[in-house]
UniProtKB/TrEMBL annotation:
GO terms for cellular component: membrane. Transmembrane segments: none annotated. This is Sortilin N-terminal domain-containing protein. The keyword Cell membrane does not apply. It comes from the Bacteria. Residues 1-24 form the signal peptide. SUPFAM superfamilies: Oligoxyloglucan reducing end-specific cellobiohydrolase (SSF110296). InterPro entries: VPS10-sortilin, WD40/YVTN_repeat-like_dom_sf. The keyword Coiled coil does not apply. GO terms for biological process: post-Golgi vesicle-mediated transport.
Amino acid sequence: MSKKNSWLPVLSLFILTLFLSACSSLTGSTPPAATPEPQKVNVFGTAANHVHAMLALPNDVLVLATHYGLYRSSNEGKSWTGPDQSISNMMTSSLTSSLKDQQHVYVLAEHSLSSQTGVIGLYASADGGKSWQLASKAADTGKMYTIVAGNRSADEVYAYVPTKGANGFVVSQDGGKHFTSPGALPFGRILGILPLPGKPGQLLVYSNDGAARTSDGGAHWEQLKSFDSAVYNMTTSGPGAPIYASGDQGILSSQDGGKSFKLVYTDARYSALTSAPGQPDLIYGKTGRMIYKSIDGGKSWKSLPQIKGNLENLVPDPQRASRLFLSLSYPSEVYQFDQQDAAWSSLTPKS
């Protein structure tokens, strides 16, 4: 080796020593701090969890569909189980129970995390949400936006598949295993479906373009002239009861099974309406921050005590009209309101 290059081995050894020293500083006893796992804030998980749907069933059963799994209480919310192992912690939405048998319950499930491996689709329960079975895969039916139990049998389910456009209204008569399209909708997209209690095959759909009615399970539709703009929500308390709608026009009511609607209140635009079973003139309206009550069929409204949080789902107790359940999001929480106490109380255990 020439003298002019004799310094190269020394330089190479010096660089290697620096490199190894740097690696040892990264792999020694004090590694970089890892990103901490999100902490649970209550029985429903972390503060990031939020509610998509809620059901109140007979015998003090509550079912909650959240972004990270399905939860159930069998004792008025005193304690909860979940997320349900059959569905794991997949995102659940669009809970519905049959008008013919409330023990028949349906829910949609899909992935909310890239690590999830559960099957995306429609799940069914015949025991009020105690156990669940996959009824149909989204890969076979198309991805459903909303599901509603039908009014002809406990195994009837209506659904809406947005990718199918006007033919996206589909129906199953075997508990969600198979779906067919009975006929084209008058709209390209809809926001919701309301089967009429005690009126087999009679339904209403509502959309940004108004509402429509069918008397033959969706084979033929008649667009309602009562609406000239968006309808956000519809509700009714039972067979033969008035049907209420909230939309751009205000609050409307139908006394003829949804054939026509009359404007009854113009000073509110509620994002959701809820009826109390067996109380035809009692309805609740919800905004993002407040809940209102009407006892005269929507003609006048009074606010309920304000509760802090992001208000999501509002459902009445099916056996006690004076009690109302409310879900909150970020984090997920459940509250109840009793008319006698005129106050909200928490149904959310810490763990």
